[in-house]
Amino acid sequence: xxxxxxxxxxLRNLKxxxxxxxxxxxxxxxxxxxxxxGVKGFLVRLxxxxxxxxxxxxxxxxxxxxxxxxxxxxIGVSKAREIARELSFQVDRGIDPQAEKKKRKQVPxxxxxxxxxxxxxxxxLPTLKKKTRDEYSRIIDVELVxxxxxxxxKEISRNQIINLLDSxxxxxxxxxxxxxxxxxxxxxxxxxxxxxxxxxxxxxxNVSKYKKTKAGGDVEKKRSRWYKPxxxxxxxxxxxxxxxxxxxxxxxxxxxxxxxxxxxxxxWDDIREGIWTIPADLAKNGExxxxxxxxxxxxxxxxxxxxxxxxxxxxxxxxxxxAPMKWLTRARVTIQEESDVPDFRPHDLRRTVxxxxxxxxxxxxxxxxxxNHKGLAKDDLVTAIYDxxxxxxxxxxxxxxxxxxxxxxxxxxxxxxxAGKIG
Length: 423
Description:
Blueprint: E1 3-4, H1 8-13, E2 21-25, E3 28-30, E4 33-36, E5 42-46, E6 52-60, E7 63-72, H2 77-92, H3 97-105, H4 113-123, H5 130-148, H6 158-169, H7 176-195, H8 229-241, H9 246-256, H10 260-264, E8 271-272, E9 275-278, E10 289-292, H11 295-308, H12 329-338, H13 347-359, H14 364-371, H15 374-377, H16 381-386, H17 392-422
Parallel strand pairs: 1-2
Antiparallel strand pairs: 2-5, 3-4, 5-6, 6-7, 8-9, 9-10
């Protein structure tokens, strides 16, 4: 069977042939170095009619099996590969994905989008503030149910969703910001349905957000949010009181400034002599990244060892055995609804770290090295080759300096509480 690095461009350019062809995923190697890992068993099938389907092939109990993931472009390549990788994890844990799929199909539940939306409003909306609850209800009743209500949720395609959102973003009165809000609410409904076994995937996840209309309508502003000391104190209070390992993940994002997914996938084996190595296949830019850990970061990691030390992952999923955390949605929503930081987003913690480090005198080059951001670090090809492990002392000093500043912000909050009690 032919092997290819499966990507969007390759899939778009695939033309029908005289017979059915299957292309297996392979590693992406550039200049002799591994940039992206393929997934063994992940493939795309091109039919004689030109249809493209993703599959995952695997062996279980001595038998070759094939799991149909979905069709292209209803599911994008990245999402399909992610699903295939999750399926491979299941097989490694002794779970047969095909058998699990058959069990789900035996459940005689083919609820329509309208029925699931009503259940969503009944069971989820009461947990929200009234203003948020009213906005959810309006979007469901006015924007979603009239267009999708009659369809079984499992049969709604990505193209249907794109058409619905495009009509709002590029219609007679272009409203891309509202289209993004509708998109977010729809994604939440799908997450609700997946948790109850009423849907198998979330087709919204591969639909991009809108920036502006073709006609120059309203524009979603580029986010530049960072948190001031009082807000950091408020957020840390919620991080402290949140269930583990979620609370520690959020703290680590604020201490190190690293990306959310890379942090949640931290492994115990990735930590050596006070340095956390983010593997190339996990890093966003496809290159290994070294993060010196401050004493503050190491303390948080070590406090988790009694509970997650037997797992490969530092921030082990509370729902799956030996798997990393995948979501921070519940924490984000709760903090938005209950705290004094109603616009909280985990990614803003990374921007907050960058802002304070700049104030502390950290240069753009060192900051770029810490954040693994080539544009900020001004890395070119030559620099990337000859300076791959450079600036380690400067990175460590900068992260230590930021952790001292962060600790002083948290300590100031504690001092104020003590002073209030004495007064």
